From TrEMBL:
Keyword Cytoplasm: no
Residue stretches spanning the membrane: 7-28
One GO-annotated biological process of the protein: proteolysis
Protein name (Swiss-Prot/TrEMBL): S41 family peptidase
Single annotated GO MF: endopeptidase activity
PANTHER family, A to Z: CARBOXY-TERMINAL PROCESSING PROTEASE CTPA, TAIL-SPECIFIC PROTEASE
Family according to the record: Belongs to the peptidase S41A family.
Entry superkingdom: Bacteria
Length: 529
């Protein structure tokens, strides 16, 4: 395998994402002219950069020096104060805003063209009649094929201003000539709620992948849907959720907590405390609740889990969460770049901080994750290290701990069969998605008569597809892979990916959850009442 630790991509993804975390709640009382008034230390940095720019023997990109300087300063603060270069700001902002302006397709730069995986349901391309498998070859007269176009250039040609129109020429298999479509660009959601469906006739399931600006609206829509289907119990899945906006976490926790219950409080360096309480708008204050967390559930995810646990609401299920209890605020640096600076700590209703120590530096901080694995904590709850000095009690007398993540009420060990090194590699490198797309390309009509629910409930991946996938990989990787040890798991991922490309909108989760041991545990708890 190209890497030796199956968790490394998750670590990197979480480390990057948790830097984009909660803020927008606090206000600075000092005016900018006071905060940024001149002093000798700042003058020293400015003079050094000026000297390098004007007098240094070689030409130097001083912008890069400034970037390095800013990063160096932030690395000496805490692991979650981060610098966002101006070239990354747009994608970061779109991700946290929850939408962008575009034509509404999922696509691959496949071979030398843009291949549509599927048009987003209800989006402009879907309304125009664009289908999965279509190739977009021209946009407003510009060619979109050839080996020289990169992903960024392709996206730029398809994005534009709101309500602007783009004329597309599309190749569709079986059609004698190119098809013409005019598509009006609109706001395209970047979904933060992956799925909302019924696990049983009374147990609803909602999967939230981050806390963006649009998340509460998505979540409320999903919750209303489940209540309409008769849900009296909810499983809220926050696994692998790196966090997001503090206010959004508060709104979601409010849906489950009774009026005036404390959700959390924050404290800054001056000792100022701000408290957040539940309001009267919650729609699921009486129902039974299960919250799923794991070692990659961070920040805003931990706010929700901690608020519910400390108020004796629901059952927290899974493994100890990440352990991030710091609040960031984004500040513009004037050149299109920004810094997300830690401005306060948050505390759960019982008064506990769940922030892991970081006094030994960032490397030690992130290596602590590997220590959890090596200690056996992901398999055995008795291996979780807790300190009696950080023991707290909930109103009903339940013991909870601070100092490094939310410890679940019910432990579920990691499932190595569905999260092994090879499967993680294949999924994250896109091999499964590309193979499924190419398989669909051979004959999409095979699936025309299969409804979404029939596919999810009864469709079985042919054995031949698994062997074809193995041959596909062996042609594209140096290792000769075999799936003897996890044949069924590969079939499950192939089916889930096929469902996603055919039906979208939560189909992947519905399939993959059929073999999820944490979901099975929730269903069993629900049956026991």
């Amino acid at each position: 395998m190209p890497y030796k630790n199956k968790y490394l991509p998750l670590i990197i993804g979480t480390a990057i994402a948790v830097g984009i975390i909660i803020g927008g709640k606090l206000n600075f009382s000092d005016a900018p002219d006071k905060l940024f008034s001149k002093n000798s230390k700042k003058d020293k940095l400015n003079r050094l950069i000026d000297y390098i720019e004007y007098d240094y023997v070689d030409d130097v990109n001083t912008d890069s020096i400034v970037d390095v300087t800013v990063n160096g300063i932030l690395e000496n603060l805490d692991p979650h104060s981060v610098y966002i270069p101006k070239e990354e700001m747009q994608s970061v902002a779109e991700n946290m805003k929850g939408d962008f302006i575009g034509i509404g397709i999922s696509f691959y730069p496949y071979k030398d063209t843009i291949a549509v995986i599927r048009a987003i349901e209800g989006g402009p391309s879907d309304k125009a009649g664009i289908k999965g498998g279509d190739r977009i070859v021209m946009a407003d007269g510009d060619t979109l094929y050839g080996n020289k176009l990169n992903d960024g250039e392709l996206v730029k040609k398809l994005k534009g201003t709101l309500n602007s129109k783009v004329n597309l020429k599309i190749f569709r298999k079986g059609e004698p000539k190119l098809l013409n479509f005019t598509v009006k660009r609109s706001n395209i959601p970047i979904k933060s709620v992956d799925a909302a469906y019924m696990l049983t006739n009374k147990l609803g399931y909602i999967k939230v992948n981050r806390f963006a600006e649009s998340t509460y609206k998505e979540f409320k829509k999903g919750l209303d849907k489940l209540l309409g289907l008769g849900a009296t119990e909810i499983a809220l899945d926050l696994r692998d959720n790196p966090g997001g906006f503090l206010g959004i976490a508060e709104q979601i926790a409010d849906e489950f907590l009774e009026d005036d219950k404390l959700i959390l409080f924050t404290k800054n360096k001056r000792g100022n405390i701000e408290k957040s309480f539940a309001t009267d708008k919650g729609d699921f204050e009486k129902g039974k609740l299960y919250v799923l967390i794991n070692e990659n559930s961070a920040s805003a995810s931990e706010i929700v889990a901690g608020a519910l646990q400390d108020n004796d609401k629901g059952t927290i299920i899974g493994r100890r969460s990440y352990g991030k209890g710091l609040v960031q605020r984004e500040m513009d640096l004037g050149d299109g770049s920004a810094v997300r600076l830690t401005v306060s700590r948050y505390y759960t209703p019982t008064g506990r901080s769940i922030q892991r120590p970081y006094s030994k530096g960032n490397k030690d901080y992130y290596d602590e994750y590997f220590s959890r694995m090596e200690s056996g904590e992901l398999l055995d709850p008795d291996k979780i290290q807790v300190a009696d000095s950080l023991k707290y009690k909930t109103p009903k007398g339940k013991i909870v701990y601070g100092g490094g993540g939310i410890i679940p009420d019910m432990f579920v060990p990691i499932d190595n069969s569905m999260q092994n090194e090879t499967l993680t590699f294949l999924q994250r490198r896109g091999f499964i998605s590309y193979f499924v797309f190419e398989t669909l390309e051979k004959d999409r009509k095979l699936y025309d008569g299969i409804s979404r629910q029939v596919f999810i409930d009864t469709f079985e991946i042919p054995e031949k597809m698994v062997y074809d996938f193995q041959e596909y990989l062996n042609k594209r990787t140096e290792s000769q892979l075999t799936f003897v040890a996890y044949h069924d798991e590969v079939k499950q991922y192939l089916k889930a990916t096929l469902a996603d490309q055919l039906y979208g909108s939560g189909a992947f989760e519905e399939v993959i959850n059929q073999r999820d041991i944490m979901i099975e545990e929730v269903i069993e708890l629900s049956k026991k009442g």
